[in-house]
Amino acid sequence: MIPARFAPVLFSWILSGTMSLLLSGISTYRTLPPHLQFADVWMSTWLVGWLFAFPAVMLAAPLARWAVASVTTSPAPDRQAAD
User: Fold this and answer.
1) Average pLDDT of the chain?
2) 61 and 8 in contact (C-beta within 8 Å)?
């Protein structure tokens, strides 16, 4: 198993890989209708996109967490648990 301290990096790796795969596939399809080389073009654009997406997610995830925390409230503590 992977130690928990690597969870943010693993999260960023998986999220950036998934999102860049989907977006590059959509963009490639819109530009280049499916044919024999579609998969080759898609995979090459995905890898280039992933190279940019991974560091972007590493930088953006903490900012997104901060933004969400600043506009949300924590649930009130349970009064019965304190008794």
Assistant:
1) 90
2) yes
